[in-house]
Write a structure and sequence with these properties.
Shape: globular
Helix content: 10-25%
Number of domains: 2
Number of strands: 10
Strand order of the largest sheet: 2-1-7-4
Order of helices and strands: HHHEEEHEEEEEEE
Radius of gyration: 19 Å
CATH architecture of the largest domain: Single Sheet
Strand content: 25-35%
CATH topology of the largest domain: ubp-family deubiquitinating enzyme fold
Oligomer: single chain
Number of helices: 4
CATH superfamily of the largest domain: ubp-family deubiquitinating enzyme superfamily
């Protein structure tokens, strides 16, 4: 079966044949196309309600708590499984922010200098149907080759996403949390 009609409707040309797209990219293109082309139908609302994730990417100064947020949306989430032992562990690692300090401090406009900064992702909302894919490939810098992460990751068929909305994952119980965790 030819996929030319489908790929042409996405605006893809013959050049895209040589670009690898993963399943999440396809879902984003497909569901965005449905949302924008569903004139006069409630299909657009249905796709958003059941499939769209809203994620806040942020940098928060740990000296003054000022936050630089950016909201993005997607139709799925890619979880790194290299060190994860389960789905819950991978989700917590995803939302656990990175603390940038020492040689990686970030300039804060409010403090007018480089400060320790908390940078991460925060789910603002999760859809009714969460599409997850596991990032099972790594790049080995020593051999300059891709290596596959070959291990089992237990995951539930149903879960309560409320545990991850607004969460700092594993960092919540550590001393790096700021005065105003929830922004």
């Amino acid at each position: 079966i030819s996929t030319n009609s489908l790929t042409t409707s996405f605006g893809w040309t013959d050049r895209e044949v040589y670009i690898q797209h993963d399943v999440l990219e396809l879902a984003d293109v497909l569901f965005t196309f449905i949302e924008t082309q569903a004139f006069g139908f409630r299909l657009s609302d249905l796709v958003s309600t059941y499939h769209r994730i809203n994620v806040l990417t942020y940098s928060q100064c740990l000296a003054c708590d000022s936050v630089r947020p950016k909201t993005d949306s997607s139709h799925g989430v890619g979880l790194n499984v290299e060190q994860a032992t389960s789905f819950d562990d991978a989700m917590k690692r995803y939302v656990t922010p990175e603390i940038l300090g020492d040689g990686n401090k970030v300039f804060c406009d409010k403090c007018n200098g480089k400060t320790d900064t908390k940078r991460g992702y925060r789910f603002e909302s999760l859809p009714y149907i969460l599409k997850v894919y596991f990032r099972r490939w790594n790049f080995n810098w020593a051999t300059l080759t891709r290596t596959k992460i070959d291990k089992e990751i237990p995951f539930p068929l149903e879960f309560d996403g409320n545990d991850y909305i607004g969460s700092d994952g594993y960092l919540e119980n550590e001393s790096h949390t700021s005065k105003s965790d929830k922004f």
